[in-house]
Amino acid sequence: MSDTRAGDGNRREPSGDDALVSLDDVDVHFEEETGLFDFDEPDVVHAVDGVSLDVEEKDVVALVGESGCGKTTLGKTTIGLQRPTAGTVSYRGHDIWEAKDGRGDIPFEEIRSSLQIIHQDPGSSLNPNQRIVDILSEPIRHTNPDAGLSERRSRIYSLLERVGINPAGEYADRYPHQLSGGEKQRVALCRALLMNPDVILADEAISALDVSLRVEMMDLMLDLQEDFDTSYVFISHDLSNARYFAEHGDGKIGVMYLGELVEIGHPQELINDPKHPYTQVLRWATPKLERHRTEPEEPPMRKIDIPDPVNPPSGCRFHTRCPEARDICAEETPERYGVGERGQEAACFRVLDDHDYWDSDPIED
Amino acid sequence: MSTNGSTEQESKIRTDDPIIEVRDASVTYDDGTSYVLDHASIDVERSEVLGVVGESGSGKSMFASAMMDAIPDPGVLSGKIVYHPDEGEPVDVLALDDEELREFRWEEVSMVFQGAMSSFNPTMKIEEHFRETLKAHDAPVEEGMSFARELLEDLYLDPKRVFDVYPHELSGGMQQRALIALSLVLEPEVLIMDEPTAALDLLMQRSILMLLHELQQKYNLTMVFITHDLPLVADLADRMAVIYAFQFAEVGPRDEVVGNSGHPYTRALLNATPNIEAPLEEMRPIPGDQPAPINVPSGCSYHPRCPLSTEECEEVDPSFYDVEGDHVAACHHWEEAQEEIDLHLAGDDDGAVASDGGVDDE
Is A1 among the domain residues? Predict the structure, then answer.
């Protein structure tokens, strides 16, 4: 641990006004319905807990973690689709939910149209009864109400060509079911871009595509980032995709575990030198594709299944699976501590050389 | 890649001790105008893990179903599927009657699909699924149930907890593991899996892969793992087969197919795959699209996308060529492919070992 520089132990202050979108100590808790005649306290799912995160102009933030870790909820909170139960989300310094409630100084509509989403399954997000040209006309009508039919058509054709859908004129008159999965996803990307957004949330947007098509789609998204000056929040369960996207986009990767952001950093540091034991688990889970097959290694964790987010473990939430867990991890909650020179942060006592962790007894199962 | 049943091709496909032989397996939905599996021939070797890799719409699921004579209606399967049990006479799978086929599918060769929920009955608890399966096949139930418990524990599931719940009460990863246990309860020799982990997150996929590896060793199973995800199966497979446009493009030992591939498509696929360690700037998408069944190109079906394509490729559909030992590739120019299309794999940072078989021209 000698090469790590311990932070001051305080949760980082969000830079606030400078950031495009800034989340400050955000919680999103869902109450689960427990039944009509059940008067007990409802179960509360801690989808997001105490997360602070900034998205800068022309930034790329990749969020990774396993199913149920809260990465989609955090993504939706970032673009104002999900109201946090605590904390604030601001867009260019304006509180999004104040604006929504009519107490802000800019219209909520302006914020909402600046923050767009593309989903994992483009098939279900494109209206099956509309032709591609109609689907893509809507955002233009919104951003540029004066545009005539021919202007709309020419913008749509040139964008379709830009994303590699040729011949554009022919495709524009098709319905979504006449397109392949990759083509639908590119149309969904076009629709989001035509809103001239500041941020696009790509929620597992490439996961349904064949492995061989993923690089192409990511390249396209990054190329268009240059043209449209947009930022991406890129959600994936696959660290190698997150690495490709965040490293090419000169952004960062955030690792989520049970509602908490446990590590964040530039892809190179985070992947080559992960500080949180959970990031090391994700690293293990990512196939390396080596020239020669090696015997599968045991996962660096004590249990395969993620705990129930209704009842997250005490202290560090990863302590029930962590191979490095000690008694203190079940009692005290680590904050995100800075390590290294480039803003990497990890919520693990092990990055602190002088923490009581080192004198605590290992947890035995 | 058509085999024409020639003895020379037969010797290239043949393994030492095949448990399943597939010869010229073809599936058509329009009386032979087009094929969604086109004269595919391969051996599955006893006790091996065979990884079958192909993109969506390449025919890989048809291949899985063909091995069990389970092609969805109204598809027509032709060719030959021979199953060699441990003891006794070889079985001509396509000649089995319905009852024999039902027994064959669970007791000899079992199959796991993507999306466990559609394989379970949502109104039945997990325990009942195991009991019903055992009863339906006249297997001793109590003995079978104790084996079921062992299988669940092998898959890191607590039988007490899992037996007593309905399928929807389990997480996706638990469902898929319970389904794998169910598919093994009648002690089949072969387990065929078609995208068994595709709906799960990567951590659960890899955990299941590790458990499959342990199951395979413990029970000496033969496994056929079919997926679009080459890096995933490359960690488990002993041999790999790459499907392109409804035919096998390349078959061979895992390290040969990954490290020394002879087919330009395999090499392009390897370089198109996001990889945690390979140099980022070397990842390249494959230009063009794969063909639909109704307009498969003449000659080599990959030729319109292939950088090495020649007149020969446009006219002559390549049969398998020997690359090295048991490694075969259906490419007229496999040697050129090895020399001219560099591979960029994990640990190849310096680029000095870019191509085992040929000259590095960087």
Answer: no
Answer yes or no: is A4 within a domain: no
Which residue type is seen at B353?
Answer: V
Whether A271 has its CB under 8 Å from any CB of chain B: the answer is yes
pLDDT tens per residue, range A26-85: 999 998 766 666 566 778 889 999 999 999 999 999 999 998 899 999 999 999 999 999
Residue-range domain boundaries for chain B? 96-188
Q: Do B283 and A68 touch (CB under 8 A)?
A: no
Contact status of A293 with chain B (Cβ, < 8 Å) = yes
Determine the structural domain holding residue A283 and report its residue range: 17-33+43-129+175-359
B-contacting residues in A 129-188 (Cβ below 8 Å):
180-181
Any chain B CB within 8 A of the CB of A360? no
Q: Which two tokens stand for residue B28?
A: 């058509």
Dig out the tokens for A70 from the structure: 């809260």
Whether the model pTM is above 0.90? no
| Number of domains within chain A | 1
Residue A170 lies in a domain: no
Give CATH superfamily name and number for B96-188: P-loop containing nucleotide triphosphate hydrolases (3.40.50.300)
> Considering chain A, what is the average pLDDT of its residues?
90
- Inter-chain CB proximity A66 and B171 less than 8 Å: no
- Interatomic CA distance for residues B262 and A30, integer angstroms: 53
**Residues of chain A numbered 68-97 and touching chain B (CB < 8 Å):** 68
Residue A155 lies in a domain: no
Q: What is the ipTM of this complex?
A: 0.83
CATH code of A346's domain: 3.40.50.300
The C-alpha of B214 sits at a distance from chain A's nearest C-alpha, in angstroms, of 9
